[in-house]
Amino acid sequence: MPVSAGQDPISVAVLHGGETPPGLDGAVGDARLRLAATPDELATVLPGCEVLLTWDFTSDAVKQVWDATDTSALRWVHTASAGVDRVAFPALLGSGATLTNSRGVFDRPMAEFVLGAVIAFAKDTARSLALQRERTWRHRETENVAGTVATVVGSGPIGRAVAELLGAVGMRVRLVGRRAAEGVHAFDELPGLLPDTDYLVLAAPLTDDTRGMLHTGTIALLPERARVVNVGRGPLVVQDDLTGALATGRIAGAALDVFEVEPLPADSPLWTMENVLLSPHMSGDVVGWKDMLVALFADNLARFRDGRELRNVVDPERGYVSTGGNQ
Fold first, then answer.
1. Catalytic residue among 160, 178, 281, 303
2. Is 139 a catalytic residue?
3. Please, what is the average pLDDT of the chain?
4. Given 75, 86, 178, 233, which residue is catalytic?
5. Is CATH 3.40.50.150 the classification given to domain 11-105+287-321?
6. What confidence tens digit (pLDDT) does each residue in 73-105 have?
C-alpha cells in the first residue's frame, strides 16, 4: 500500500551506533537528519521524526526506548539489514508505522559465502592451511561437491541465490519455505529431507516458527557426514545442541556466520573446534555494501516523499517481506 508523504522537510532519525552511513547527507536531499549513537540519544531525537533508519542493525535500542518515547509522528522504519528481528517487536508492528528492510543487497554475496564454505569443507582447506603452517607434506583425498545434496531452509532471495550457485556446481538442491510452492518444500517437510542431506544451509528469517529449529532432535535426523552452514540468524540454532554434536562427531562440521550471542564469547568451545569454520556475521558484507544500503534507503525515501509504494515492506503478521516468492 502506498505511503503518503508528510510535509517537507522530512525528519529522519538515524540510529548509527557510532558509524554514520557513508554519503547519507547527500543522498537524502533536504531531509533533516537526527543522529543517535546510543539508546539515550535515540530517545532524545526520535520524537517528531517521521522516519527512522536503523543503520546499527545489531542494536536493540529501538525496542529499549519504544514504550517511553513519543513515536506518534513515526510512519516508516527502515533497517539496514535483511533480518528484521531486532525491530519487528509487537509494539512497533502494531503502531501503524511501515517497516522495510534491505532485501536484495546481500543475496549474491551470501550465496558466494555459502558456496565457499561448501568447497572449503569438501576440499579440506582448513587442514591444508594448518599443515602449511606446520610445513608438513601430507597427501590426502578430498570429496566431490557435484552430486551431493544441499537442503536450503529459506526460499526468499538469499535462499534462492544460494540454490542457484550450489546447483551450478552440480549439487542437488532442495529449497524449504514456509509453505509448499513450485520447486519449494514446505517447512513441515524438513524432517523427511534431513536423512540424506550433505549440507544443511540455514538462510531463513527468524520467526516464532524457525527459532531453535536446529536442535538435538533435528540434528539426530542428519547423517554423520552432514555439515551445517548458518548464514541466517544465530537463534535458528540451539547452539549448545549443535556444539555438542560437533564435539562428539555426530555431524561432520559447521560453518557459522551468526550466533546466539554476538560477538561469540571468547570461552566458546566453537573457537577451537577443527571441524568448525567461524566468521563474525560478515557473509553479506562485500566491498561497497554500505553504499548499496544507503542507495536503497535513499530510493525508498524518495518513494516515501512522493507517496509511492515502498520497496521491501515487511508483512507484520509473518515478520518478513512476503512478496516476490516464499521465505
1. 281
2. no
3. 95
4. 233
5. no
6. 999 999 999 999 999 999 999 999 999 999 999
Whether 262 sits among the annotated catalytic residues: the reply is yes
CA distances from 191 to 137, 198, 220 (A): 42, 14, 10
Residue 315: what are its φ and ψ, rounded to 5°? Answer: -70, 115
19, 179, 225, 262: the catalytic one is: 262
Residue pair 53/43 in contact (Cβ under 8 Å)? The answer is no
DSSP codes, 110-124: HHHHHHHHHHHHHTT
Q: Enumerate the CATH 3.40.50.720 domain ranges in the chain, comma separated.
A: 11-105+287-321, 107-278
Residue 83 CA to residue 102 CA, distance in Å, equals 8
pLDDT tens digits, one per residue of 270-280: 999 999 999 99
Query: Top-level CATH class of 107-278?
Result: alpha beta
Cα of 270 vs its chain's centroid, Å: 20
Residues 6+ apart with CB under 8 A from 89: 63, 66
Q: What DSSP designation does 313 have?
A: B
Q: How far apart are CA 52 and CA 33, in angstroms?
A: 10
Catalytic residue status for 189: no
